[in-house]
Amino acid sequence: MTARGAAAEAQAADYLVRQGLRIVARNWRCRQGEIDLIARDGATLVFVEVRARADSRFGGAAASITAAKQARIAAAARHYLMTVSPLPPCRFDAVCIDGGRLQWLKNCFDAAG
Asked: Which Pfam families match (predicted)?
């Protein structure tokens, strides 16, 4: 991970904590992929993808979360959920940072990718 990527993830985690979420894990990895942040929003388990771009050309940070990337995140989330009992409600969020502007996209894709 680059220093810029680590800074973006730290900024995203700090922002989510200020919004009332509790960070459970950072950079959780398995064979299926990586989840940048795993958090709790009340009873809901939230899998968070963090994307940062210097500017919003070419669609910006949100556009960089392709269907293939969504599928890898969902596969990793399914693997993570094997360690959780009972199964909580879940959602997939993204924190996108374009040129310093942070945007939190809640429930932005589903496990089907």
From this structure: UPF0102
CA distances 70 to 20, 76, 77, 99, 112, Å, are 25, 10, 10, 23, 8
Q: pLDDT value at position 15?
A: 97
Domain boundaries, the chain: 3-108
* Closest to 108 measured CA to CA, from 79, 73, 76: 73
Return the closest-CA partner of residue 41 out of 16, 63, 65: 16
DSSP assigned state of 21? -
CATH topology of domain 3-108: Trna Endonuclease; Chain: A, domain 1 (3.40.1350)
- What is the C-alpha separation between 36 and 51, in angstroms, rounded? 9
pTM more than 0.90: yes
State yes or no: cis peptide before 86, omega within 30 of 0: yes
User: Per-residue pLDDT tens for 81-112?
Assistant: 999 999 999 999 999 998 889 999 999 888 76
Residue 94, by phi and psi: left (phi above 0), alpha (psi -120 to 50) or beta? beta
